């Protein structure tokens, strides 16, 4: 009689939908850790295998999941669990990635309350820091980002530490601690130049962040040098990342005063985002281009770009971006002499900023409306809005923006002959 040889079966995930879900979780965890596919593969697997896992093409064995989980500092069950826990870390990360920053922050706070491990805590704190920075609450990000940076340092996780330090720099920059921000960003950049594993777009983000810090410090040449260095990395990025990079580069050039370069980079970014079907990002780029054209005096081109943004945002209904767009449209109307249309649009911007909690858009819209009222001869109303904007600027945006608001308020008071008040406010502007 022929004997059947019992063979040990290897446990694999053979459900394709589940394999795809596991792949998405591996990808999210890898990016969160700041690792490339090659770095995650280590000495056991290849970059191609990691790519196949992340896309759901390959079905991972439990041995592979255990290996990857250990390298990512998380339990293997996190990849395969079907738990419907309301605030899972994955859910929080996806909310953050999708731009739902307030919900992501709530999710991270719930996760933190569950007393996670030290490594998980550091990752959660990093997510909280990013959410706070993106919500224009940068100074609040300093504490969690500093704790995350210290924890990653103790745990010997340099790639994750670099990401936490990046958001710590963002918090310090928002709090006007530019020396701290500059030092942190330079440290991260040195590590990246020294071969620290990371995604290409992270290096670009660090360079552009440094350019922003140097621009606001008045070091325009240094800022442009960082931007030009970032430009050299464009070939390493895929389509979507290249588009994101060009958007950031355009903003960097605009802040550095090179509006023509901002427009060129912005137009290239818009083209790539359309190719990648990144509709929200394309609409945001179109709005940024409208602002850049306004600053160069090209009102008609600004109107055209605003219309491009409007066409997409009306369909998608993103209130945060619509608030910025309505403010831009109000500025275009003001530049065209349409005071009634400008006031109607800026009132809509204020309404959208309020409903979406977009404090930066609210600050911009208050200043725009004050300028509209000044052009309409309604000086007293404008003064009230400048005062409101000045209060808001204490917690939103860099000190340079606050100085702009205070200076505009002081100029208005001086026009009305209230020189003592104007002098006091101008002194405050110079000291901020």
Notes on the protein architecture:
This protein has 23 helices and no strands. The protein is mostly helical and 432 residues long. The longest helix is centred in the N-terminal third of the chain and has 18 residues, at 16-33. α18 runs antiparallel to α19. It is 77% helix and 0% strand. It has helices spanning 16-33, 37-41, 47-54, 62-72, 77-80, 89-98, 101-113, 118-134, 138-155, 158-174, 178-193, 200-216, 220-231, 239-255, 259-275, 279-295, 299-316, 319-335, 339-356, 359-375, 379-393, 399-415, 419-431. It is globular and about 75 Å long. Mean pLDDT is 81; it is low at 1-14 and 82-87. The relative contact order is 0.05.
Structure summary:
The protein is 77% helix and 0% strand. The protein has 432 residues and is mainly alpha-helical.
Unreliable spans: 1-14, 82-87
C-alpha termini separation: 93 Å
Name the structural class: mainly alpha
Mean pLDDT: 81
Tally the helices.
23
Strand residue percentage: under 5%
Q: Write down how many β-strands occur, each being a DSSP E stretch of 2 or more residues.
A: 0
Question: How helical, in percent, are the residues?
Answer: over 70%
Order of helices and strands: HHHHHHHHHHHHHHHHHHHHHHH
Shape: globular
């Amino acid at each position: 009689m022929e004997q059947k040889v019992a063979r040990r079966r290897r446990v694999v995930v053979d459900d394709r939908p589940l394999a795809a879900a596991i792949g998405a979780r591996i990808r999210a965890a890898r990016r969160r850790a700041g690792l490339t596919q090659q770095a995650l593969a280590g000495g056991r697997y290849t970059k191609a295998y990691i790519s196949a896992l992340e896309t759901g093409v390959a079905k991972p064995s439990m041995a592979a999941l255990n290996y990857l989980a250990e390298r990512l500092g998380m339990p293997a069950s996190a990849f395969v669990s079907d738990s419907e826990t309301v605030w899972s870390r994955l859910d929080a990360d996806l909310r953050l990635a999708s731009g739902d920053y307030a919900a992501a922050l709530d999710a991270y706070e719930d996760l933190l309350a569950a007393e996670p491990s030290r490594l998980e805590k550091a990752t959660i704190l990093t997510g909280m820091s990013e959410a706070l920075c993106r919500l224009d609450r940068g100074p609040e990000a300093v504490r969690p980002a500093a704790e995350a940076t210290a924890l990653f340092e103790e745990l010997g996780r340099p790639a994750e530490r670099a990401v936490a330090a990046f958001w710590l720099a963002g918090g310090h920059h928002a709090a006007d601690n530019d020396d701290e921000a500059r030092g942190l960003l330079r440290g991260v950049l040195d590590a990246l130049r020294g071969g620290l594993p990371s995604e290409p777009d992270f290096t670009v983000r660090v360079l552009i962040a440094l350019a922003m810090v140097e621009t606001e410090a008045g070091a325009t040449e240094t800022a442009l040098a960082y931007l030009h260095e970032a430009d050299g990395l464009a070939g390493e990025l895929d389509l979507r990342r290249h588009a994101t990079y060009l958007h950031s580069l355009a903003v960097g050039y605009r802040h550095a005063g090179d509006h023509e370069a901002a427009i060129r980079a912005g137009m290239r970014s818009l083209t790539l985002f359309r190719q990648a079907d990144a509709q929200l990002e394309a609409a945001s780029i179109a709005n940024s281009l409208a602002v850049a054209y306004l600053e160069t005096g090209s009102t008609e081109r600004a109107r055209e770009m605003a219309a491009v943004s409007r066409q997409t945002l009306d369909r998608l209904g993103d209130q945060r971006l619509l608030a910025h767009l309505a403010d831009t449209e109000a500025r275009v109307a003001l530049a065209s002499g349409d005071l009634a249309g400008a006031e109607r649009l800026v009132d809509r911007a204020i309404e959208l900023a309020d409903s979406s909690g977009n404090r930066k858009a609210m600050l911009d819209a208050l200043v725009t409306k004050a300028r509209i009222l000044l052009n309409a001869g309604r000086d007293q109303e404008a003064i009230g809005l400048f005062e409101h904007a000045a209060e808001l600027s204490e917690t939103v945006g860099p000190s340079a923006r606050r100085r702009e608001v205070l200076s505009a308020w002081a100029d208005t008071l001086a026009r009305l002959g209230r020189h003592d008040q104007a002098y006091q406010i101008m002194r405050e502007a110079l000291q901020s």
